Amino acid sequence: MLMGCWVRAIFKRSAAFEQCKEHCRMFSSSLRPRPRITRARKNWLRAAYADNIRRETIEQPVEPNLIFRERFRKEMDTVKLAPQIFDYFLVLDFEATCDRTRMPEVQEIIEFPVVKVDAQTMEVVSTFHHYVLPRVNPALTTFCTQLTGIIQDMVDGQPHFEEVTQLFQKWMDAEGLLHPECKSCFVTCGDWDLATMLPMQSDYFKVPVPSYFDRWINVKHSFSECIGHFPRGLMLMLESLNIQHTGRHHSGIDDCMNIVKIMRALSERGYVFRINGQRTAVRGGKGKKF
Known about the structure:
alpha/beta, 2 domains, 11 helices, elongated
């Protein structure tokens, strides 16, 4: 009888022992680190997920979504741009003869670009662009070519300054910008173009300056009023607004297109452009272009 009790005790203890071992094994297996997912495995999972989403999208009717997105885009385009007091903006950015060590005694315009922008949509509707052959210093310096990207062949055979101003007057008339009911204003990056460069060359060659050049919008001041700090140049404005620069810096026509991007970004923030520069206020060459 004692032997039987002893055997039953041993049997029960061994069964409990085995059960405990099993529990410990299960617990330890749960603590094992999970196998790492390699980068290739992650890429495969992403591709599979994207393919699954694509298939689900294809199976769904997409026509109503496309109609909604197009309508939403048009509504956003009309809502997010502030209404302006002008009909058109004329974005202008001259490039002129220059040198690294000493500026020419007479600085002359070698690129004359003006971009006509619809003030309500901020879209470019027309462009005037001419290279100009300088008279006093017809040979461009190496520094001038490196800065502006304008090579000698681009100005050779081009009309002189007075001829280009006449062509520009005809373009203004053909675009309806000289009509009394048309409200337009020039836009520059700084005051140098219309406060210094154009009057200085016009005085030297005895070319009258049309009155529509007397007032303009300095986009730097507009940026300062809208954003809260004054920018030193075009590139800093683009960077502050998180806008990708396109083209070549100090190429007149490319700078004009980038100024248009800045104006659109400011208009999207509700800014209304107003005249903030005029020749009578900065006469005497005080303006400066960066």
